[in-house]
Amino acid sequence: MAAPPARSRRRVDAERSIARIVSAARELMRSDPHATTDDIARAAGVGRMTLYGHFRTRADLIEAALVEALRDGDELLASVDLAGDAREAMGRLLASSWELVAESAALLAAAEGVLPAGRIRDLHAEPAQRMAELIHRGQDQGVFRTDLPATWLVSLTHYILHGAANEVRQGRLARDDAADTVTKSIQSALAAWGGSPASG
Question: What does the alpha-carbon distance between residue 135 and residue 133 come to, in Å, rounded to a whole number?
């Protein structure tokens, strides 16, 4: 069988190199949003010239890592049963997606320093919309509070998630305890007056 053309081999090699670099960026920035391109290149096992050959700037690399993390998050979200009682659905969502949410929070922290605010909003629009729909449903069901706007409750949920991710990075919250802590905190913040927060 004839060997594949050199151009095809180069394209495959480039795709593998890009995948390694993005994977390394996601892993490093999960614990340190300030990881440098040199750190990422070393973790990916490539040289700086190779990294910059694929990503002109650190911002380009952060955006690629964030896009991939959000895509993985969307795939995970699609596998979570969000039907029925909105409190229980929120518990399932937070319990199953905390790890990816924590990673996305760290990448968002990195992105805030290098990407335009409008671009960050655009990238995060779909996950935010899905969370908003779940909160709206909970308000309609009477299980989530209605004395505050749903848009604020979405923001509050993200603040808690980002804060917990930072606490884990700083060593003040054990990673094994994070999902339970986040779930209880958000369920308590969302609970309708007179209702009891679901434990998930």
Answer: 5
Q: Which pTM does this prediction carry?
A: 0.72
Chunked into runs of 10 residues, the chain (200 residues) has average pLDDT values of: 63 89 92 90 94 94 90 80 92 80 76 83 80 93 95 90 84 90 94 61
Which CATH superfamily includes the segment(s) 6-190?
Answer: Tetracycline Repressor, domain 2 (1.10.357.10)
Q: Are 90 and 190 in contact (CB under 8 A)?
A: yes
Q: Which residue has the tokens 């369920």?
A: 187
Domain boundary assignment for the chain: 6-190
